[in-house]
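Quick one: sequence plus magnesium ion SMILES, need structure tokens.
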Amino acid sequence: MSEKSHVISTLVEHKPGVLQNVASLLNRRGFNIDSITVGASEVEGLARMVFVVRGDEKVLEQVIKQLHKLVDVVKIKDLDPEYVLKRELCLVKVKTGKANVRSEVIQYADIFKAKIIDVCDDFITMEVTGHPDKIDSFLKLLEPFGIKKIARTGPTAIARGHH
Amino acid sequence: MRGGDAIIKALMDKGVDTIFGYPGGTVIPFYDMLYDSDLRHILVRHEQCAAHAAEGYARASGKVGVCLATSGPGATNLVTGIANAYMDSSPIIAITGQVVSNLIGNDAFQEVDIMGITMPITKHSYQPKDANDIPSVINTSFEIASTGRKGPVLIDVPKEVQEQELDDYVLGTIPTPGYKPTIRGNSKQIAKAAQMLKSAERPLILAGGGTILAGAGEEVKKLAELIKAPVATSLMGKGIVDEKEDISIGMLGMHGKQVANQNVNKTDCLLAIGCRFSDRTTGKLEEFLPEAKVIHIDIDPAEIGKNVAVDLPIVGDAKIALDQLINELEGSKIDESAWFKSIVDFKKSTIPRVSYDDIPLKPQQVIKEIAGAITEDTIVTTDVGLHQMWAAHFLDISKPRKFISSGGLGTMGFGFPAAIGAKVACPDDAVLAIVGDGGFLMVSQELATIKEHDIPVVIAMLNNRKLGMVYQWQNKMYNKRYSETDLGNTPDFVKLAESFGINAERVEEVDKTQEVLSKALKDNESMLIEITVEKDEFIPMFPPGGGINDLLGEYKYEKDVAGGK
Ligand SMILES: Cc1ncc(C[n+]2csc(CCOP(=O)(O)OP(=O)(O)O)c2C)c(N)n1
Ligand SMILES: [Mg+2]
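Reply:
Sure thing.
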């Protein structure tokens, strides 16, 4: 069976225990969770929870059905990979001891539209958002300078246009 | 009115007459308020039995069963019972006390995260933080427990919430925008199902516990007769149609009837209703239903296609969907069916042997005596083990809700407390618990409960002094290496029962068995009947992982009994 990556977007009741319930259900049913993001949605009292998970189609179908059974889960969508807009936020702290290194890093940040949010004598901290692939490439470019810390949110997603 | 009073009032407003429970630190406020109320409380002697009794109550009556325990160990003692109810989709509500809110998370005395622990085994749970929410939480919990695919709901009530004064008692609802079970079958799917059944040559119905939960007995029978389809059941579906009638071919599965197991694979169209195709029912999936188109009606979409590939899914309540299907098929009644006739002939020629004159008694013979002692209205509960399978295989049940057994979880210790709950729910029906010596000893303290509360339950204990079912597996599959399955000679069960003030008798002969059972059931008195049975008599089975027609052991036939005894 082929393990594919899926983005599942759910609307859930915004209250304690829901994240735990959903995460433990996915885990119990043998689905590997790559990431979960949670935050308020357009509906008051409901949160949007977006997961990236891996598993085969049959397991995916079962997981969606099982998620539907949770009373706190209001809506579920397996986002079509063709129409999904995936975005992630990443904070990264890079070593910039020498002056020429600092300007090189700032140049990369410019290209990737990363924002510099903190600078000190030894480090620059940047904020970059975008498709996870873009973040991966950005981080790869920074690697030779010495990355001190990375904090990624994991992707959240929404369907394009009318989808 | 305080939170605890609100719990009591809301339960009574929902029609609850009795709850099963056990007090402790965090529910003392509740118990203090119970003291002045009209709500009946059965003090069990172990919380696990409160949950099982609530389930027995629910399954016998179709109502919601309620159990209650204190926080910490009281709550964790409920866990097995909650899990059992979850696996068998029984509507129960478990109420637990919780430490005062400002101590939650501090590892306070007798604090456990019971909501977290039971998350995978409850349909839903609540922890009201404001006593004003209690009536609505209880109201909504009833709604969730008893609709859609039924199941347990947990309500965890911090101690101070039980003591908090309410501003106003309002039996409202807690919004559940994500909860909308599908009740009616999709009419296009129903029409397609009717077409498939009409064109089938060898239709067969498999009815599971969902048919019992939906109260679909009449509908299953009507449909089966309309299309001339024999009805097999899972353990949980037993009694949905009268097993004495031609239309029934009994339980399918690991310890199923020959007529069910050996004919299921001949069907060209299986109509499965309210069943979940557990491995104990189907055996190896690759060898199950090689030729059949499968129609699956279930209220839980997640059950459809989970184990067996389904050609036509219908999501809906079994009773309503069957009714729709019957309407669709009206006018196309089949009168003659060679297939149906062949099944009836098969059934008649393979009536399993129950007559023996051996001592110690053969378990089959004991079931025959039980059959002679009960009526169609006797509620039979079973524990888990060989005795359960003997009963499931050999004891014909005529009506729904008259056979109550632990199916999905297979919980030893279920049978006796479930019988207590059933008797409380249906005081006019005789209740018989068929138990083994191992499982009974796990819950024998409940003899005190039936004595104190005068709940007449008759217990038929098939004593083989073994953990019989495991012993059978060791005999058949582990080279007769009987590791830890001998239970020795203690206790003296008669003395044990008598020490609780419960009448007891040990029987070792054939005739005595039925006489003692009949009398106890008729007298409506509690009694433990210990029946010494042969330990080396085994029930036919397919091995775990084997196909439905792999057979370990052999079928024996009543027609072969010399002299037709
Ligand atoms: C709580 C629990 N523990 C262990 C088991 C495993 N188990 C299944 S049947 C069985 C033996 C039951 O023995 P007994 O109650 O004497 O019934 P018998 O099989 O002898 O009729 C055991 C140990 C179980 N089902 N439940
Ligand atoms: Mg035994």
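Chain B touches chain A at residues 115-116, 119-120, 123-125, 144, 149, 176-179, 300-302, 305-306 (CB under 8 Å). Chain B has three domains: 3-163, 187-349, 363-560.
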